[in-house]
Amino acid sequence: MRAGEKIKTVRISIVGFGHVGSGVAEVVMRKHDEILRKHGLDLRIVGIADLKGAIVDEGGLNRDEIARFGAGGALLDMSSLELIREIEHEVMVEATPTNVTNGEPGLTHIITALNSNRHVVTSNKGPLALEYRKLMELAERKGRELRFEATVGGAMPLISLIRENLAGNGITAIRGILNGTCNYILTRMTNENLPYEHVLREAQEIGIAESDPSKDVEGIDTAVKLVILANSVFGMDATYRDVRVQGITEITPDALKLAKDAGYAIKLIGDVDINGRLEVAPRLVPVSDPLNVGGTLNVATIRTDLAGDITVIGKGAGPIEAASAILSDIIAIYS
């Protein structure tokens, strides 16, 4: 914070208090003093809502109040839409689960917040994968920001890197691994010569895969992220239905071994380019290629006309990682 610069109070609501929403509350509390010192922003969470109810303190919720809410106590009979409309705040964080069928309830939350003159920061991929142009046009009409770094790559700074650091470049293609669950499964299958079903059960037991892993392993999650990149970077008007998708469920240890013996790894790769290509499928990746990362890591290579290929690697999942991206978006609104 520069000398003479005034402190700005930024009031935040969080809608959806699962892993990501609770992670946002944690990092806002943990980093409050540092953000105040560095950026002159006094971040205050004034309301939280999810299916079980809401909690509000217009002066800013403290740790104990947030903890009681997380445990199911001290609830108001207030809906998320009432919180968005009626409680005075500047930024609404939308962290409800992704729904790629109709985008709800996140789509209505985002529209309501923008119509209520709130900035929106979201980790929810569904609304952007289905109604990107409509939402961005609404944000522009209202003079408000809609930011979504956390929707693609988690803590990996991909969208902001393209929009800000590579602003003078023409982006011609983006190619990468955008799902940590699939990458973990393929890495374990390759390294240990294990069948898909065995590694999937292992991933579920340690919390890397959901009890219903279909969105991940069938390529749906990667496809949704690819649509967000297509629309935000290349100006397309694509939806999830425009993506050619193939998952990893048919990959065998024998196929992985053959690829390894030939100097390749098999990875679930998402491809989007300036010509409208939108594909998700297992691909052969040379072992020396920057895209050949292991475990739950995400990676993306951005092809540019001036800077050449830029590759970024990071943790693509996890509540604190997603919250990191959300916090960066909030700060960027006021930078």
What does this 3D model show about the protein?
This protein is α/β, with parallel strands linked by helices and 335 residues long. Helices cover 41% and strands 22% of the residues. Strands 3-2-1-4-5-6 form a six-stranded mixed sheet, sandwiched between helices. It has a six-stranded mixed sheet with strand order 8-10-9-7-11-12. Strand 2 and strand 3 form a beta hairpin. The longest helix has 21 residues, at 19-39. The chain is globular and about 60 Å long. The protein starts with 7 loop residues before the first strand and ends with a helix.
Sheet with the most strands, sense and barrel status: 6 strands, mixed
Low-confidence stretches: none
| Backbone CA Rg | 20 Å
Strand segment count: 12
What is the H/E string? EHEEHHEHEHEHEHHHHEHEEEEH
The helix count comes to 12
Give the N-terminus to C-terminus distance in angstroms: 11 Å
Instruction: Going across the biggest sheet, name each strand in turn.
Output: 3-2-1-4-5-6
* Global outline: globular
Mean pLDDT over all positions: 94
Strand content: 15-25%
The percentage helix is: 40-55%
Structural class: alpha/beta
Short characterization:
With 335 residues, the chain is α/β, with parallel strands linked by helices. Helix content is 41%, strand content 22%. A 6-stranded mixed β-sheet has the order 3-2-1-4-5-6, with helices on both faces.
